[in-house]
Give the backbone structure.
Amino acid sequence: MKNIAILGFGTVGAGVADVIAASHNKICREIHDVVNVKYILDLKDFPESKYADRVVHDFDIILNDPEVEIICETMGGTKVAFDYTMRALSAGKSVVTSNKEVVAAYGKLLCDVAREKGVRYLYEASVGGGIPILRTIKTSLAANEIYGIDGILNGTTNYILTHMKDDGTSFAEALSQAQQKGYAELNPKADVDGDDACRKICILAALAFGTMISQSSVNCEGISSVTLDTIEKAEKFGGSIKLIASARKMKGEKIDISVSPCVVSNENPLSNVSDVFNAIMIHAQHLGDVMMYGRGAGKLPTASAVLSDIIEIIKSGKGSEQETWTIADPGTLSDNFKVFDTFCIYVPYSFGARKEKVLSLFGNTTESFEDADGFGFIVENISRNKIRKALHSIDVKDYSVFRYIK
Amino acid sequence: MKNIAILGFGTVGAGVADVIAASHNKICREIHDVVNVKYILDLKDFPESKYADRVVHDFDIILNDPEVEIICETMGGTKVAFDYTMRALSAGKSVVTSNKEVVAAYGKLLCDVAREKGVRYLYEASVGGGIPILRTIKTSLAANEIYGIDGILNGTTNYILTHMKDDGTSFAEALSQAQQKGYAELNPKADVDGDDACRKICILAALAFGTMISQSSVNCEGISSVTLDTIEKAEKFGGSIKLIASARKMKGEKIDISVSPCVVSNENPLSNVSDVFNAIMIHAQHLGDVMMYGRGAGKLPTASAVLSDIIEIIKSGKGSEQETWTIADPGTLSDNFKVFDTFCIYVPYSFGARKEKVLSLFGNTTESFEDADGFGFIVENISRNKIRKALHSIDVKDYSVFRYIK
């Protein structure tokens, strides 16, 4: 029998118990053994739950039970979750988690301890909910260098942007709808400001490039400044506004990470990712572009990802290898404003800007359009700094710039 | 050192050698060992190739070399490829393949032999080219029952349909373009008639449901009857025509498999899969809908999938478990014409059909439209047989029906 303990009986923790109950036969066939939820650690009791008899309040009971081999950390938060994870790994128990805050902040340390102790620390559910993106990078892309990743990694913001575009609702209205549906927290800051997407792209970059960039050093722009007008402009550029979290390998070991609203071309499959769905496009050496799409959050999808990690640990045995990464040196992160890329630029007429004069600054531009208020155009192979410098040189200081994802 | 042999130095075989050369350091880091292409079996010599010294013409040299642990079968065809694969597995060597014909026809037998001999027979590259769909089903979806799969599994037909829609070229013109670009064979029958997609969906169904349906028993419809008019009609239904290969679990252990041109709703991410790209949407118990998108063919993407299998075998060791499946009993396959689903129906006026009378046969219909020649509507929860019976009851015998993928 394989005994597991669940830390935190919230949405994901309860989902893990439910998936184990609902798919008990299938999981047991997979692992050639019987899986059993021996303990559920929570501050509360759950007298009505069918798992009431497994609820404990003292982590030491779990830690000191040699029968518990795998611990699911689905508590959220960082302080206690990190402490329990560290103690579990140090005691030779494998840990699986959906807790992106802990992975982004302490993943390197925890992976190292797991490696040293010959156990595993797996975190598939921390990025993309149910989408099996981390395992795909680790296994199926093993022969590929990864050049870059572009992801829609936050369901709440994607829901808001989808409904602004499709229904013409304002940002505030769409956010309020998302809150009513339970997609957004009452305090939506972490979603709306891009922090959640930022954590996830840092985890993806750590796995793909072997180096963890601290979230706090990333230039992270959310969607609160996106208006219906922005969305209309994006359509004129032939795309949709999406909150894109990107990580790219640059020349000389530098890494570029950004989270920002981008214009995604209608030709790109990311443009068709609606509502709370997430998708991650990987640009790989031999494989080319590969995208995974699915539910980036939710009780059962996330629990399904936790279970895939549990099954991997049981099937591959304790001795299987724990990946780890380094912590990036200062200077590894590129300055976003200096990175060369393709940008959509919109200049309003209101301050006297003349189209011919502006376009003449940039050489080859494509997809230009004019509307009543101004004009838009796309420039390839330029940086945000160079755009600013060029426009400032003719005193154009009122303009908008979005990265363009072809 | 891990020595491998490549059988067949065509596009994929040469791709495997090239990926190993280009990513030698990365692969060696992954496997903690050195990978070496010891032999390349082909009828021809390749005096100009940098691998010329590894080319052999006698399979027995490979079979009798105890240093060769893994054989890549990238020959194509079934007879010799099957024979060599069987002999390799029987001799205790693992085999990885991109050969969908062999997997579809003899996969069960070969998996059984591999299992018996404690080696592996892996075939990631046989479905979806570089897209890591089989490994995802086996690992990340391990806790999920799979309810169904809808895939765009053939790049050639998707290229043709994309260009018919986007450029208004006829089927014949688009096919000729695909041949010029090397996407379609000179004899395009296997692609255009849906046989290639059919093989792949049978392999996917075998892995997902544990039962292999014989390709010859599947009702397989290609795209040769799709015209520009069909494509226009699909747009009026709010979608695009795509060649969809589907497999679904039905009640009572039955399985429904079909390959047919379907109207894919613009809301569905499969509708945005263009050119030679492939995509596979899986409907899973806990995870919900998850889609993988990428290059379904090509030298390096396919070779990358072959390498992922080689790396899996080396990392997991010989003793790891070979999955296998059963061969479906007669009667397991549903009769497509009796399966309840959602259909787009178009009835021309030419034979005197009256819209009100036709619609009154079907109860609730949605998304109806009229054009100069006739009218279209969508009916849910109905079978092809029932549609035919209803229309025949009022002497409407000239109509078109497409499955609708929401």
About this structure: Chain A touches chain B through 52 residues (CB under 8 Å).
